Amino acid sequence: MSSSPSPAGAAGTVAVGDRTVNRLGFGAMRITGRGIWGPPRDHDESVRVLRRAVELGVDFIDTADSYGPEVSEELIAEALSPYPEHLVIATKGGLVRPGPGRWDPDGRPEHLREALEGSLKRLGVEQVTLYQFHRPDPAVPFEDSVGELVRLRDEGKIAHIGLSNITVDELARAQAMTPIVSVQNRYNATDRSSEDVVEAAERDGFAFIPWAPVGGHQPGEGDALAAVASRHGVSPVQVALAWQLARSPQILPIPGTSSVAHLEENVAAAGVELDPDDLAALGA
């Protein structure tokens, strides 16, 4: 007799390379300080958030060396190491943080190698399951950056390669060099500029990981989201996440928060089922 899915698994699963994960993940950007800079205001709550996420069935956690910088990866290791065998921790490199509010691209091969080595050390692992190129660097040929990730994978330091903040043209150029198992772009009900990348994910079978998944200046804002939320007795944020889950089986939302209460609300969105009228109201 099969058991019921965990809260994070209520919307099913998606493949990330050779790993299968529940289709409601966690983005670990906001467990850091204000402006994604420095340590969190409440260190213990950030640790509780990470541990509660795993209890709820979240088995995909997304982070980056630039979150903090370094703080997010350090907190993940503190809270969750030794890691459960099923847990996928994805991290990213390619952005540097000279100061609060600064996110500067650095796609030089030597920087990406150094960034990965730092992530391995902070996470306390010998291999990163999914390593994502955080953003193409206009000053560095794209193929040079991706080529270094291929070399790091061939050395066994990366299991799978992903991309972030890329176009379909850049995706195709990378795919000509190596398998790409994920793309992480901005995408939500009010910003669908990456629709062509979502369609590529459906065609090619890679995971699409939206950042800013709830959209808007305020999370979940918008008359349509509010109306659908009222019909279901849930929050607009939950509807925004449920819309993404309904949009494509390749989408793996990773809402982030520094609050256990908000985490539980976000994960519960995996169980919200939108009907055709809801999807029509949201412009699906």
Layout of helices and strands:
Layout (H helix, E strand, L loop, with lengths): L12 E4 L2 E4 L3 E2 L15 H13 L4 E3 L8 H10 L7 E6 L1 E2 L7 E2 L3 H15 L4 E6 L8 H13 L3 E7 L3 H8 L6 E3 L10 H10 L2 E2 L14 H10 L3 H12 L12 H9 L7 H6 L3
Parallel strand pairs: 3-4, 4-5, 5-8, 8-9, 9-10, 10-11
Antiparallel strand pairs: 1-2, 6-7
Quickly list its features.
284 residues, alpha/beta
Molecular structure report:
The chain is globular. It is 37% helix and 14% strand. It contains ten helices and eleven strands. Helix 1 packs parallel to helix 9, helix 3 packs across helix 4 and helix 7 packs across helix 8. The strands form three sheets. The chain has a seven-stranded parallel β-sheet with strand order 3-4-5-8-9-10-11, with helices on one face. It has a two-stranded antiparallel sheet with strand order 1-2. Strands 6-7 form a two-stranded antiparallel sheet. The protein starts with 12 loop residues before the first strand and ends with a helix. With 284 residues, it is α/β, with parallel strands linked by helices. It has one domain: TIM Barrel, CATH 3.20.20.100. Helix 2 links the parallel strand 4 and strand 5.
Oligomeric status: single chain
CATH class: Alpha Beta
- The tally of strands reads 11
What is the global morphology?
A: globular
Radius of gyration: 18 Å
The proportion of residues forming helix, as a percent range, comes to: 25-40%
Counting DSSP H or I runs of 4 or more residues, the number of helices is 10
Cα(first) to Cα(last) distance is 36 Å
Estimate the mean pLDDT confidence.
95
Q: Which sheet architecture does the biggest sheet show?
A: 7 strands, parallel
Assign the CATH architecture: Alpha-Beta Barrel
Query: In terms of structural class, how would the helical and strand content be classed?
Result: alpha/beta
How many domains is the backbone divided into? 1
The named CATH superfamily: NADP-dependent oxidoreductase domain
What percentage of amino acids are in beta strands? 5-15%
**Unreliable sequence segments:** none
**SSE pattern:** EEEHEHEEEHEHEHEHEHHHH
The name of the CATH topology is TIM Barrel
Order the strands across the largest sheet as they lie in space: 3-4-5-8-9-10-11
